[in-house]
Design brief:
6 strands; alpha+beta; 193 residues
Amino acid sequence: MQDGRARISAALCCALGLAFCLASPRAASAQDWAGSVEGSTTDGPTVEQYLNDAGPDVKYVEHGQLKIDGKAVNCGKRPTVIDARLDSWGGSYPGYLILNPNRLRGLATPVKFYVYYHECGHQFVGATETGADCYSIRSGVKAGWLDGHGLDQICAFISQLKGDGVHPPGPQRCQLMRQCYAAALRAKATARN
């Protein structure tokens, strides 16, 4: 019995020591914050904490000041952090969005708008990826930046992604976004009548 306790204690000490050895300062990312989920509207660093941890290379953009390909985007009163070291196209934490300009570079404008409004959607629908996808698509139809060709571009982009424990596979997300698009068009037509 004591031998078993000694082994467990030794294993815990080794694990703790390994954790300290592996810990090192590095670029902040939306996925680095322990205990939080990308897209969480209830957990994660404040924008000030994120900026302090990320360092001087990030840029803070006040709400209403961000333009993507020359067109203004807005997520209510939420600012955006521009972080080229973010390990994704975008991220979201309570009260602000994060975009990686290097990953967005070269994408079609509707895809860039999709990424922005997907992250904005997390502010309103929580961590659900398909909910944020649908929010983005509805926003695009309502604001007029999304048409059938733009949706095809978004689907070509998203369909390449395999998915993970949080994100469904890209082709499945595309199919759901097409359903959201059709529903948004019906809602827009009904509102006109």
